[in-house]
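To close the section, here is one more complete example, presented without commentary so you can practise reading it yourself. The ligand is flavin-adenine dinucleotide.
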Amino acid sequence: MDTTASAMPTGFRLWDPEEDDVLVCRAVREETADVKTFVFAPRTRRQFVFDPGQFLTFEFEIGGETIHRCYTISASPTRPDTCAITVKRVPNGPVSNWLHDEFKPGMMLKATGPMGEFSWTRQVSASNKYLLISGGSGVTPMMSMTRSAYDLAEIRDVVFLHAARTPADIVFEDELAVMSRRNRSIRVAHVCEADAPGRGWSGLRGRLTLGMIEAVAPDFREREVFVCGPSPFMKAVRALLESGGFDMGRHHEESFNFEDLSAGEKQEVEVATDEMAPAARTFRIEFAKTKRVVECPEDMPILEAAKRAGLRLPSSCTKGLCGTCKSKKVSGDVEMTHQGGIRQREIDAGQILICCARPRSDVVIER
Ligand SMILES: Cc1cc2nc3c(=O)[nH]c(=O)nc-3n(C[C@H](O)[C@H](O)[C@H](O)COP(=O)(O)OP(=O)(O)OC[C@H]3O[C@@H](n4cnc5c(N)ncnc54)[C@H](O)[C@@H]3O)c2cc1C
Ligand code: FES
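Output:
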């Protein structure tokens, strides 16, 4: 990446995770009882470049384990000196709870990215009418896109529809109200399932319905629709839009659980591997720490072979994007086709993404 942009004031550089992947936490903000925003800056003054809706992959050292997780940047690219993520506490989840309980301003994390395609600047070429539908923590990419449209005073007609459990769970409520009051082309509506203790809810109530979508965006069939939230929520929204005669070619969605989206691709892998010629070579994959050995055909990703053998290994996207399955290769050769989830210097240091690495010899992995 060219880290010196000629249009920038002298001395300003762009953040490049290849060069310095460490981000320092500058602030932690409580949004709701179980959602916090973490604001980051590079160690030396550098600016972030990303499309609103993209995510970063962070590396955590928790309980002696290295764990990777992706978080969408909730901040707007129009304020490039810092970036921020907004994290919802997931019951028993190791990383979200560690961030909420232990992570403080001044602490540092390694990060790669930005990555991802879920952005109106990447997926839509000629439209200025949008319906952004989110549930729970799925609000983050919508917030980044809306903040950016507001800051740039773009001519975009945005309907921001967010579903929360109760009014106390609405993230960014005040900021959204200010943006929509000052920019009439941003309209915001919330749907709540129930009242909060001490705060009743007189707005749209219950689970999201087609009637509610029609009420907040009567012209929704003319809009590009972006959806993000828990898997059952996204499935329900898909069904609602289809039942309303929406052209699903203009429907865009992101899951915070990559496995949802890669199910189709996995099926293809299984079909391909099941039909593999019996003559395909098979290699021995040894997991050094757990002392497990699996056989892996040369055309099968190592992660897939390990899963079939009953091993539980960290993984998320299963397509070389998120970095969750990054592992140290002690010996052996692999062929790897990744999509940005690993840096060149990590590859040079012997790291591989086992979800997209196929063996070319017997391999030993430090797991
Ligand atoms: C591209 C991408 C972007 C993401 N952006 C965000 C974001 O902006 N904000 C955010 O809070 N999370 C986001 N996530 C989810 C995040 O990466 C973690 O999965 C989440 O914080 C839980 O991590 P954990 O280690 O605490 O729990 P895990 O051990 O990962 O999960 C525990 C259980 O909770 C489920 N789960 C995971 N995430 C959620 C969730 N958000 N809501 C409900 N159930 C969940 C898992 O399926 C699992 O069953 C994103 C994920 C992806 C793939
Ligand atoms: S699981 Fe995402 S890169 Fe391997």
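Once you have examined the tokens, check your reading against these statements. Residues 55, 69-72, 85-88, 90, 93-97, 116, 136-137, 140, 230, 256-258, 316 surround flavin-adenine dinucleotide (ligand 1) (CB under 6 Å). Residues 204 and 212 are 7 Å apart (CA to CA).
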